[in-house]
Amino acid sequence: MRAEDYIEGLLRDILQEKGLQWPDKTVIEPPRDKRFGDVACNVALVAAGQAKRKPRELADEICTLAMERGDLLDKVETAGPGFLNFTLTPLFWQRTVNQVLEQGDAYGKCDVGKGRRVQIEYVSANPTGPLHVGHGRGAAIGDSLTRILRTANYDVATEYYINDAGRQMLLLGMSVLARCKQQSGQDIPFPEDGYKGDYIGDIAAALLRERPDLLKANSDEEAERICQEYAVADISAGIRADLDAFRVEHEVWFSEKSLVDAGAVEKTLEGLKKRGLAYDKDDAFWFKSTEFGDDKDRVLRKSTGYLTYLASDITYHENKYDRGFSLVVDVWGADHHGYIPRMKAAVQALGRDPEDLQVVLVQLVNLLRGGEPVAMSTRAGTFVTLQEVVDEVGADAARFLFLSRRSDSPLDFDLEVAKQQTMENPVYYVQYAHARICSLMRKAAERDLSLEENARGDNGILGRLDSEEDMLLLKQIARFSDAVDGAARGLSPHIVSYYLQELAGAVHRYYTVHQVLAASDGDVIRARLLLMSAAAQVVRNGLALLGVNAPESM
RNA sequence: GCGCCCGUAGCUCAGUCGGAUAGAGCAUCUGCCUUCUAAGCAGACGGCCCGGGGUUCGAAUCCCUGCGGGCGCGCCA
User: Fold this and answer.
1) ipTM of the assembly?
2) Which of A22, A326, A424, A492 is deepest in the core (most CB within 10 A)?
3) Structure pTM?
């Protein structure tokens, strides 16, 4: 049980007895300063008004009552303007070792989601070129969010939206066809807005090898279609392989084209019009997004007759809700932030609460090498691909670094630092804590100090975990569920990353101060082994939320 | 011009549904390996939380305003 929950239970009883309402503004949390105890609460401050009492006096009364009935309370104090500071008994914290060992991989699970069905759509890069570093950050975030939300008891489905309809597909076909012709000796100009990357030439060459008669046997139009289909298939396969190597999985690959071809978009537009949320103007067809707070209305069908991207995107989101997801999370590049108001408007037009759509914005990745920026341009085709980065620094380091900042702030990613196995690279700091403990366990096994026997909830020996470092580590372990909870509520994987660095710090400190296997007597050795085992379990569970491996030796 | 995000230690950043003396890592300096992995630990140094107003018992956090930086503003996707 969390310390905060234990205290809240106590306080609720006391307030009820005093005939006071539980104030909404009550905060129960570990205080910033450790000298204020394990848990601090402002309830006397925020309830003073309704009690018609001075905060300090009310606090003193609650203090006395809490001390009387809190079996696991060591100390309660009032402080400052009327804060209540609680210190729990060592036993309370020592019990967490058993909780961790009993629950194992399940330790840290919480019920923020209450089984709510949620879909996370992420990466969703156009199949017009390989994934680059920025996509990698989005991939790491989407995948980690999936793991975090599942741990918080959300029913999560993952999806990749393939933008395989529209103009950029035509452009892709034209680009490949142009390269085919050039490689066949024709001196023709390359399309102005075409995709210039080297991979287009590679695709063209491969296609020509497979279909030597491509240019002769087909009309330009037909050849272009073949080029497009071939290129999309080739690039999509590459994207899947890249994501696979990055250990990122999408359960569903959803085709935009399939929506358009099935007439679903037309149906959505009709529905909007019927409800008076869309109208004709200037030969175009408009969505009345201003009805729901957008700056201006948006075009759904251009005067040329073509649908806009927004039109199919609305349909896509309607489709998501129709499939039974009550919460939809979209992970987008931050350059799409201007698109949020119209999508929120669309969600409302579909009859949903705007909160049923959560957009996680992922800021730019600045790729550096030894502190110097690496030049990148998609247009010129000089970008660094995700695959290159993963090959160079490994999936673990890349994922951890991508997840070590809040997603909406820009990230400097230095390839040299990512490769370094030093403290500048926090992933090794965390993994090393795990490897060190595993090494201890191996040594313990050699000496027949089997943990199986010890893990049977013997609180007697856990009482030997009574030093300052024991308490620090125990409390840090117990805080894991807070990290999961916070990360799930805020859709913020970086909270787990920060937590793990602190946990690893507590482990390393402990390891340096206390000899585990050379302790004074057998009970202390066994107790410390149990503690270490629990710490390793939580490191593993935390890293699992980030999709990073926990090696047993390094 | 309008909108969104950002401005915290020399550097990179946490902390922002208001709480007590503002945190971490890196860098710099000082210590710690004949003993469980030194990829580690301990300590020191380092701050007008961009400036200015306001709200209140209390502001890095909320509001207004100025400055500085990033991004977006299409019948593009």
Assistant:
1) 0.95
2) A492
3) 0.94
